[in-house]
Design a protein that fits this description.
The structure holds two protein chains of two kinds.
Chain A: H1 15-26, E1 33-37, H2 43-53, E2 57-60, E3 84-87, E4 91-93, H3 100-104, E5 105-107, H4 109-115, E6 120-122, H5 124-128, E7 131-135, H6 143-155, E8 157-162, E9 165-170, E10 173-179, H7 188-191, E11 196-200, H8 206-221, H9 223-247, H10 255-268, H11 274-289, H12 297-308, H13 322-334, H14 337-340
Parallel strand pairs in A: 1-10, 1-11, 4-7, 7-10
Antiparallel strand pairs in A: 2-3, 5-6, 8-9
Chain B: H1 10-23, H2 25-28, E1 30-34, H3 39-47, E2 54-56, H4 62-66, E3 67-69, H5 71-77, E4 82-84, E5 93-95, H6 103-114, E6 120-124, H7 135-140, E7 143-146, H8 160-169, H9 179-189, H10 196-211, H11 219-230, H12 266-277, H13 281-292, E8 305-308, E9 313-319, H14 329-336, E10 360-367, E11 370-377, H15 384-403, E12 407-414, E13 417-425, H16 428-436, H17 446-462, E14 466-473, H18 487-503, E15 507-512, H19 519-528, E16 532-534, H20 538-548
Parallel strand pairs in B: 1-6, 1-7, 2-5, 5-6, 11-12, 11-14, 14-15, 15-16
Antiparallel strand pairs in B: 3-4, 8-10, 9-10, 12-13
Helix pairs in contact in B: 1-8, 1-10, 8-10, 9-10, 9-12, 10-11, 11-12, 15-16, 15-20, 17-18, 18-19
Classes of the chains: A alpha/beta, B alpha/beta.
Pfam families (chain A): AAA_lid_2, Mg_chelatase
Function (chain A): Involved in bacteriochlorophyll biosynthesis; introduces a magnesium ion into protoporphyrin IX to yield Mg-protoporphyrin IX.
Enzyme class (chain A): ligase
């Protein structure tokens, strides 16, 4: 087993997926990323790589939810070590078939039976706090677990009220889901609960595929050296993300930008305001990443497909790609690309 | 038979694959063994003994997979006993009846394989052609071996000395700079989409070089690696490919001209031809069958209610043995409470004395997946216009099926026979395309259609799904089961099959596509035990069928 993480910068192609993940990492309130597409296209590699790229977080050493200060630790957690240390951004895998207990946490059976104590054993949601929660094959995940996840992802808090326990703890994480639509489609009501959605396909041209395979093979054979070779690029990207996080608050979104978002959403017939909010947040994160002082139309144009394609009121039988429909619509609302430079 | 007799024979293919696995189990990730239980399978598994594999069932709970508290042992000894999960060790896992593996277990094993955890040997008895281990797992492991074409006498055992020497050499094998490109090109020309395949093939080529005593893999090793890793991944049948893609090449046919990979150097072409032709026919047929077989995706569906111990909606707890399900701690403590005075205080400082028969297990109720079988009469008597209306209704049903996450299959019957136009799937786009493209005309082999529906009903029952049948026909059967145009016999055959289907008690409806409602139709619906719906009142037809489901 290797402790090394494949460098994010070394991922070949898949620009949409990488961009979506970076934006979600800059502003977690965007609401996570759903990546649907072929098997073996590096979805899970990208999630892990991104977390590896992000700066470490400062957290209380013994805290199960990685609280930043000893005072923030939940009271049920009997914390032995209150030193504040630096730890890597957590990435937690939620496997298919995980029981609700394992996800939310439950009564610690071991202690209940052997010592007669009522204690809480934190689950995956606790571990994912302040990091990423990755669900592969999210389309095959059982409905009640998906509902639970989306609820927690939205409220930022996990509440466990059963078996005589009454526990709550912060659970703020970037939810990343992936799946292969050939094996089953995601319930339509879940689609738009994800902030951004990207379609991914395995690269079609041989050159790109060769490059992917070569880099992966090089990484697997000599991980330390490979990671070292890519460290400068990863470092540069990390700097940009950190800077973008700082800049996020000061990036302006003027009336024109808000208007653009609204017009696009109305033209699409996207339900609810969630689409507009996500579109705006994603555009702002992109502006921050690019060092722009304000959100302009080019940012909106770029993130619109990933922010909106899964919010279309769609006919389940519609075979035309949603991303293509959005692209057509953007042309209609904003005019052709050349005019967008205004 | 020695290895030199027939270097491309099935026995040699198996021997090489096993040697490869013995040399680099982590690099290969695993083997998919399709074989009925028997001496051949036992012999091949016996060869894996040096890796000290561990045999596990396809259904494993969290504690078995990841380790955790061993409740039964903890209670009897009064001390905390934890077990190590099978995924934590380095010992390869031999998974029995892997075609029945739940997607949750598969996902966790898949992650472990990705992390370089234990290699897995998936035993697939291949009882039905459309059963296979979970696709996500197949994608992650390098090798696939169909053993049913082999006889025990032909088997050639791996050479332990060669394997041992190769294991030593493996880390020194060089990777030629063009290895990746050669293997990616071959994969592309065979329609192998996943990028995990060429990675595994690179590892295979290196291990083969180690076995052959070379410093680096050469052309022969590349060809053999491609054959071992790609043959069972060759693209699906042309009619299963998504409509916007060109049909992928059949592994047994020559490559199409102008193929992207054809532009590669001639050595690659030779290798590609080698993958296609160098294998004995029965072996390549068996591998193609493995490529076609697809496992069903799982998830909670709209079918029958089931009770079980792991998931779904909670029900009251019941007594049961620890390890058979999730323990309901409160109920267990409650059961133990009245007995505390009579029981001796356990050693080890525990406060509560719990005996194994106090254990209460949680129970849950889930819904089984439902399969909606659309059985469509595409004969000439169901006039074209009516067929279009029937298709319209079927599409409405598909939309409903999509919302309740049902699986859908389409059977069409016309002329002399019925065909499974769309095997069970959740891909609605495919179902719709298939329906739209149904040709019409010819006789009405109703009995054949019912026979096909019955086969599918039985198959889905065996897999734990709940079948529902929607039959679109005008009921005017005129082709008997044996293909003869005999109206009386055709009617008799249809009725006999209808009664057998009725015994399975599927939900569903019979949609009358005829111009007038006939007596035949009423009798048919009655024999099937399903409500009849007329297409004449098209408006409420969909509603009536949806209600019947």
């Amino acid at each position: 087993m290797t402790a090394h993480v494949f460098p994010f910068s070394a991922i070949v192609g898949q620009e949409d997926m990488k961009r979506a993940m970076v934006l979600a990492a800059i502003d977690p309130s965007i609401g996570g990323v759903l990546a649907m597409g072929d098997r073996g296209t590096g979805k899970s590699t990208a999630v892990r790589a991104l977390a590896g790229l992000l700066p470490p977080i400062r957290a209380v050493a013994g805290c199960p939810v990685a609280s930043p200060r000893p005072g923030d630790c939940p009271e049920w957690a009997e914390i032995a070590d209150t030193r504040v240390v630096s730890r890597p951004t957590p990435v937690v895998d939620l496997p298919l078939g995980a029981s609700e207990d394992r996800v939310t946490g439950a009564l610690d059976i071991e202690r209940a039976l052997t010592r007669g104590e009522k204690a809480f054993e934190p689950g995956l949601l606790a571990r994912a706090n302040r990091g990423f929660l990755y669900v592969d094959e999210v389309n095959l995940l059982e409905d009640h677990i998906v509902d639970l996840l989306l609820d927690v992802a939205q409220s930022g808090e996990n509440v466990v009220e059963r078996e005589g326990l009454s526990i709550r703890h912060p659970a703020r994480f970037v939810l990343v889901g992936s799946g292969n639509p050939e094996e089953g489609e995601l319930r339509p009501q879940l689609l738009d609960r994800f902030g951004l959605m990207v379609d991914i396909a395995s690269p079609g041209d041989v050159e790109t595929r060769v490059e992917v395979v070569k880099r992966r093979d090089a990484f697997e054979r000599a991980p330390a050296a490979f990671v070292r070779d890519w460290a400068p690029e990863d470092r540069a990207l990390r700097k940009r993300i950190v800077a973008a996080r700082k800049a996020l608050k000061s990036v302006e979104a003027g009336d024109a930008a808000l208007r653009d978002c609204a017009e696009l959403c109305i033209a699409l017939g996207a339900d609810g305001l969630r689409g507009e909010l996500t579109l705006l947040r994603a555009a702002r994160a992109l502006a921050a990443l690019e060092g722009a002082p304000a959100v302009d139309r080019s940012h909106i144009r770029e993130v619109a497909p990933m922010a909106l394609q899964h919010r279309l009121r769609r006919d389940p039988m519609d075979e035309a790609g949603s991303a293509a429909r959005i692209a057509r619509l953007i042309e209609r609302v904003f005019g052709p690309v050349a005019a967008a430079a205004e | 038979m020695t290895q030199d007799d027939d270097p491309s024979g099935p026995a040699e293919h198996v021997r090489r694959a096993i040697e490869l696995f013995l040399v680099d189990p982590a690099g290969m990730g695993g083997i998919w063994l399709r074989a009925r239980p028997g001496p051949v399978r036992d012999a091949v598994l016996g060869w894996l003994a040096p890796l000290d594999p561990r045999r596990v069932p396809a259904q494993m709970d969290d504690a078995t997979l990841d380790g955790g508290l061993d409740l039964a042992a903890t209670l009897t000894t009064g001390r905390v006993v934890t077990g190590q999960g099978v995924l934590a060790g380095a010992r390869p896992l031999i998974v029995a009846t892997a075609e029945r593996m739940e997607s949750g277990v598969a996902a966790r094993i898949g992650h472990a394989v990705d992390r370089g955890g234990p290699a897995v040997v998936l035993l697939d008895e291949g009882a039905a052609e459309d059963e296979a281990p979970p696709p996500g797992l197949i994608d992650r492991i390098a090798l696939a071996l169909p053993l049913d074409t082999m006889s025990y006498r032909d088997l050639v055992a791996p050479d332990p000395a060669r394997v041992a020497a190769a294991r030593k050499r493996l880390s020194h094998i060089e990777t030629p700079p063009d290895l990746a490109e050669a293997l990616v090109r071959i994969a592309a020309s065979l329609g192998v989409a996943s990028l995990r395949a060429p990675l595994r093939a690179m590892a295979a080529a290196r291990a083969l070089a180690a076995l052959d005593g070379l410093a680096a893999p050469g052309e022969a090793q590349v060809a053999q690696a491609a054959r071992l890793v790609y043959a069972h991944r060759a693209a699906p049948l042309p009619d299963e490919a998504p409509p916007d893609e060109a049909p992928p090449p059949d592994p047994t046919e020559p490559p199409p001209p102008g193929d992207d990979a054809g532009a590669g150097d001639p050595a690659d072409d030779r290798v590609i031809d080698g993958v296609r032709t160098a294998m004995p026919e029965d072996l390549s047929r068996a591998l193609a069958a493995m490529a076609r077989s697809r496992a069903r995706p799982s998830g909670a569906g709209g079918g029958e209610r089931r009770r079980g111990g792991t998931r779904g909606r909670p029900l009251p707890s019941r007594p049961g043995a620890a390890g058979r399900g999730r323990v309901d701690v409160l109920a267990t403590l409650r059961a133990a409470a009245p007995m505390q005075r009579m029981r001796a205080r356990p050693e080890g400082g525990a406060i509560v004395a719990i005996r194994p028969d106090d254990i209460r297990l949680r129970r849950y109720e889930t819904r089984a997946d439902r399969l909606v079988i659309l059985c469509v009469d595409a004969s000439g008597s169901t006039a074209l216009a009516r067929l279009a209306e029937a298709k319209g209704l079927a599409e409405t049903l598909l939309a409903t099926a999509y919302e309740s996450r049902d699986h859908v299959a389409v059977i069409a019957f016309r002329g002399q026979m019925a065909e499974l136009a769309l095997p069970p799937t959740r891909s609605l786009a495919r179902a719709k395309a298939r329906l739209a493209g149904l040709p019409a005309g010819g006789g009405t082999p109703l009995a054949a259609g019912l026979q096909a529906a019955l086969d599918l009903i039985e198959q889905s029952r065996r897999r734990g799904m709940t079948p529902a049948l929607v039959l679109f026909t005008d009921g005017r059967a005129n082709i008997a089961l044996d293909g003869t145009a005999d109206r009386a016999q055709a009617g008799g055959d249809a009725e006999r099959l209808a009664r057998i289907i009725a015994a399975h008690r599927p939900a569903g409806a019979v949609v009358d596509t005829g111009r007038r409602q006939g007596r035949d139709m009423r009798a048919l619906a009655q024999a099937l035990g399903l409500p009849g719906v007329s297409l004449c009142r098209a408006g409420d037809g969909a509603g009536a069928v949806a209600d019947a489901l």
